[in-house]
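Subject — a protein and its fold
Fields — amino acid sequence, structure tokens
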Amino acid sequence: MNKVRLIIVDRLEYFYGMQKEYDWILDASGAPSITSRLYDFSNDYFQEYLLAHQVVLAGDFSALMPRLRFVFFSNLPAEFQPAYSWIFPKDALRANVGIVCTVRGTLGRDRLDLRELLDDVLRKEGLAGAAVLERGSGIAAGRMFERLVYGNIMLVGDAAGLTSPLHGGGIDMACLSGVLAVEALCGGQNGLMQYAEKLKHYMKEKQALEKVTIRKMRRLSFDQYDALLRGVTAKSRLTRLKTALCHLDMFYTTLKWFGTKKEIPDWPV
């Protein structure tokens, strides 16, 4: 049986030698990926994407544990939505505090200053004086790329654009794409040709629901969207039903997503 080795590579020059040394490479280097620098498509990650800025703070977060806090930015224009902030306690004494917004093309400070926006969040949450342990930014592409195979390189996870355009998360699709990539390699040329289509098959209903949710976030007022969220999460079945009847497009796509069962392939042996 052929050996499979996992190698973490973060420098472009290593990729040239690896392409000759290995039959196949799964690029999970994030966005923009190393492959995008090799094949000159890095700009594709910046067509429409989620941009996040986060700090790790030291302080007393025991009162919030184990909950998370999310706040939507009602004052930002629709073009930047979805946009929200979060406080995510790592433990009782540390927390991730960050913001995320949707961006199209290059984001200049004259349009939106993320550091200033985060500083405003820290002031409102009473965290302006907390010690900053770490600070960083990152992007998540808002769409899956059409081409996922370059020579003997396959894109998986964030490198393939497999992140949610609603919230920027992608660990679920990263794991799934890894399984499907190995399955595709075991299927030969036919498997490689079907890799992207299989990913689209698994993502179809999820993406449809997120698309509807984003559209409502951009078209509804903050109060209207807040009422929608309260209705969807209400304990009363009658309240949830009334909300569903007022938003039939969301109700329909939700039923399709949760009602469509897709078997996850077994790991190839």
